[in-house]
Amino acid sequence: MLSREEAYQLLKKHLKNKNLFKHCLAVEAVMHRLAEHFEEDTQLWSIAGLLHDIDYEKTKDDPGQHSIVGAEMLAAEGLPEELVYAVKVHNDHHGLPRNSQLDKALYATDPLTGLIVAAALIRPEKKLAIIDVDFLVNRYNENSFARGARRDVIASCEELGLTLEEFMGLGLEAMKDSAAELGL
């Protein structure tokens, strides 16, 4: 298993877009918090979150290849099959089943982080500190807000046994703890 620093450097090697890099940091933070909540392997879950979009700049014009290429890259790095598979299935374009808690968590977390960032950015302060779960739920229920944050995928948090509010609360807490690194 790669250390966090090794995974960070690997991501830095493959992603140059600053906002995409911050997205990966946000997913890492939320996955770490979810692993704590479910008493799972925090290193495994965090690294899965950090590296889940490692191939995005290579595959952005071919969504059918996104996450397949990334999974191949991570397998070549010797990462555990459980992590490789979770990265592969976070893109539902492939129609692969989400079998483990890790698979389900990464799938639901990916768009949640976008919704949380968008909610922070519409506030004049542009800070996570002033956002709460009620504010997020209200934005979630506005279909015109953050259209790219797929509500059906976020709602799949129920597969983890979490309500939408619980999931948003854990995600928001994790991202607030990483606000300095995220620039929010």
From TrEMBL:
Residues 16-124 form the HD/PDEase domain. Transmembrane segments: none annotated. It comes from the Bacteria. CDD domains: HDc. SMART domains: HDc (SM00471). PANTHER family: METAL DEPENDENT PHOSPHOHYDROLASE (PTHR38659:SF1), METAL-DEPENDENT PHOSPHOHYDROLASE (PTHR38659). This is HDIG domain-containing protein.
